[in-house]
Design a protein that fits this description.
By secondary structure, the chain is α+β, with helices and mostly antiparallel strands. The chain folds into four domains: 83 residues, no CATH class; 89 residues, PAS domain (Beta-Lactamase, 2-Layer Sandwich); 74 residues; 135 residues, Histidine kinase-like ATPase, C-terminal domain (Heat Shock Protein 90), CATH 3.30.565.10. It is 52% helix and 18% strand. The chain is built from 13 helices and twelve strands. The strands form three sheets. It has a five-stranded antiparallel beta sheet with strand order 2-1-5-4-3. It has a five-stranded mixed beta sheet with strand order 7-9-10-12-11, with helices on one face. A hairpin with a 6-residue loop joins strand 11 and strand 12. Helix 4 runs parallel beside helix 5, helix 9 packs antiparallel against helix 10 and helix 12 packs antiparallel against helix 13. It is elongated. It starts with a helix and ends in a 10-residue tail after the last strand.
Length: 451
């Protein structure tokens, strides 16, 4: 206890202080002998005893001075150490004297501890703010699976006050089953504050030589619902824009024709006006039909039916389908992928169609395939102006070409991703043109070609 040193000094003298006192008396021993010698000298009695008294008093004063000189710095040292033990790092000792080096080291230790405590407090504050801002529910359990820490998201998930949750076991909280099984999994679960589909992750912890467990719960259902809502909003904006672009001239022309039909007598050229107006209405209705048909094709892509596809045969077939430009096919190694041949062919046709349109009327398009890091890469290289600087190239219905539908690249990427692959489109490095790359994973049985 902090009061033990004071109580010891108030009662029995500590051992070290006794030794310091005895050492001081030992140092004063010659003076005591001198005092006894004076007592036996042939001096006058009064003078003799006066000298003895002076020697004794001087010896005692010197002993007390020596005692204070040795013990009091130790009291200061003890007080500094006691302050450090109590967590008070603001006290400093005066350097100098026989204990100057020790005081210097203690002051340096106090400064370091004070700095480390400040850093710890700042880190704890930052950690607390971070946990409070997380949408993920975070639980920390000790070695007995009793709750020791949770953030506000976890509190909302359990729908209870914090002080009622601390110390409860994982079983009492209904979380014991989540701490078992794989370290990461998706499951449907019902919590007191929410139900739905959650991403569950747990890991072992160790603090102070004792074990524990960390549990993190993410509500993936809410995220997916927000993404779905955003996707619907984007789709409705595109559909609304396209439909309005077609209905506005149809409505305007219908009104014009109605006004014309109401005239009596009809003008001589009314047949031509009616014919032109009906042609315009039919053209816009046809364009709207093509747009909706393209949307339906993109939205109703069936699941792929994979089977073994030899890339050399598929690429050659796709190249022959393009009649506007001679396509250069660069021969590669025999490579077989597991894919839906019809869907993969459609994806390559869309990419090739874009490359040819970008290259015409002059230039060329090259098709090749190769193996890279366990993937099959099909590359289409053109000599056109290159892709526009936009992040929306693969967004459905986005197009920079007059009369374009904006689904070619989107459909190609959708087909590739359905095969666990992907599509990229970028400008060629250091040269004019674009490079489109469609990649698919190779089956494990396909061994790398020998060098």
């Amino acid at each position: 206890m902090p009061t033990e040193p004071s109580a010891s000094r108030a009662g029995r003298m500590p051992r070290f202080e006794r030794r310091a006192l005895l050492g001081s008396l030992l140092v004063a021993t010659p003076g005591l002998f001198a005092a006894f010698a004076l007592a036996w000298a042939s001096w006058d009695a009064s003078l003799r005893w006066t000298g003895v008294a002076v020697a004794v008093v001087a010896t005692l004063l010197l002993a007390r001075w020596q005692y204070r000189r040795v013990v009091f710095p130790l009291y200061t040292l003890s007080g500094l150490l006691e302050a450090l033990r109590q967590g008070d790092y603001s006290l400093r000792g005066v350097q100098g004297g026989v204990l100057g080096d020790a005081i210097y080291d203690i002051n340096a230790l106090a400064e370091r501890l004070q700095r480390e405590r400040l850093e710890f407090e700042e880190s704890s504050y930052l950690l607390g703010k971070t946990l409070a801002a997380l949408d993920s529910a975070v639980f920390v359990f000790d070695e007995s699976q009793r709750l020791r820490l949770l953030n506000p998201a976890a509190q909302r998930l359990l729908d209870a006050e914090r002080h009622r949750l601390f110390g409860l076991s994982a079983a009492e909280l209904g979380l014991a089953s989540l701490l078992e099984g794989p370290a990461a999994r998706l499951l449907t679960h019902v919590f007191p504050g929410r139900s739905g589909r959650f991403d569950i992750r747990h890991a072992a912890l160790r603090s102070g030589g004792r074990g524990g467990q960390l549990l993190v719960v993410n509500d993936v259902g809410r995220v997916l619902r927000e993404e779905e809502r955003a996707a619907w909003q984007r789709l409705l904006r595109v559909l609304g824009h396209e439909v309005n672009n077609s209905l506005a001239p149809i409505q305007s022309m219908a009104g014009t024709l109605a006004t014309l039909a109401a005239r009596d007598p009809l003008p001589e050229d009314w047949r031509e006006d009616f014919r032109g107006g009906l042609e315009l209405i039919g053209h816009r209705a046809e364009a709207l039909g093509r747009f909706l048909s393209s949307y339906s094709r993109l939205a109703r892509l069936p699941p792929p039916q994979p089977r073994a596809v030899e890339l050399s045969t598929l690429v050659a077939k796709v190249a022959k389908l393009e009649q506007r430009l001679a396509i250069t096919v660069e021969t590669g190694e025999p490579l077989t992928v597991e894919a839906d041949p019809d869907q993969l062919e459609q994806a390559l046709i869309n990419l090739l169609h874009n490359a040819v349109e970008a290259t015409l009327p002059a230039g060329g398009v090259r098709l090749r395939w190769r193996r890279e890091d366990g993937r099959a890469l099909i590359e289409l290289e053109d000599d056109g102006p290159g892709p526009p600087p936009s992040d929306n190239l693969f967004v459905p219905f986005f197009t920079t070409k007059p009369g374009g539908s904006g689904i070619g690249l989107a459909l190609a990427r959708q087909i590739a991703e359905a095969h666990e692959g992907g599509v990229t489109l970028a400008a060629r490095a250091g040269e004019r043109g674009a490079l489109a790359c469609l990649w698919l994973p190779l089956p494990p049985s396909v061994a790398p070609a020998s060098s």
